[in-house]
Specification:
By secondary structure, the chain is of the alpha/beta class. Helices cover 32% and strands 28% of the residues. Strands 1, 2, 3, 4, 5 and 6 form a 6-stranded mixed beta sheet that branches.
Length: 133
C-alpha cells in the first residue's frame, strides 16, 4: 500500500498499536494502546487500552473500539485494515460480525498513515525512536 493511495472519508479504517513497547502500570499491569483511524482523514476515531497478552483485546474491548469509531464517524467503514503483526482476533471477529471487510496489511505499508500518530504518542508518553537500539 502506498501513501498516495486515496480513500474516501470512512471508506477504510485502520486499527493499530500506538505504542512500540508495552506501557507498565501499577494497577493494570502492562498495557498496549490500540487506536482506530480513518485512513482518508487520518483522524483518530478511538483509543482503548488493552492488557498485554497472547490473545490481544477482549471481545468487549473490540466492540467498544469499533462502536466508538462508528459513533464518532456516524457510520461504519467498508474496510478495516489490520497490521499483520497485530494480534487482534476479537477485533477481526467483531468487524466481520458488522459486515466490514478485513484487510491484513504489513505494518511498514501503514507507516505513511499511522506514523505521525505513533510519533506523537511516543513524544507524549516516551519510548524509543525507530533509529535507536
Amino acid at each position: 500500500m502506498r501513501a498516495s493511495l486515496r480513500f474516501e472519508l470512512n471508506e477504510a479504517w485502520i486499527v493499530f498499536r500506538l505504542n512500540e513497547q508495552p506501557i507498565p502500570t501499577e494497577q493494570d499491569g502492562d498495557l498496549d494502546f490500540l487506536a482506530l483511524m480513518d485512513a482518508a482523514s487520518r483522524f483518530i476515531l478511538g483509543v482503548t487500552p488493552v492488557a498485554v497478552g497472547p490473545s490481544g483485546p477482549t471481545p468487549l474491548e473490540a466492540k467498544r473500539l469499533l462502536r466508538d469509531g462508528k459513533t464518532c464517524a456516524a457510520c461504519s467503514p467498508r474496510t478495516l485494515m489490520v497490521p499483520t503483526d497485530l494480534v487482534a482476533p476479537c477485533v477481526i471477529d467483531e468487524a466481520e460480525r458488522l459486515g466490514i471487510e478485513l484487510r491484513r496489511v504489513e505494518a511498514e505499508q501503514l507507516v505513511a498513515f499511522i506514523g505521525e500518530a505513533q510519533q506523537g504518542f511516543r513524544e507524549r508518553f516516551g519510548g524509543r525512536d525507530a533509529g535507536q537500539v
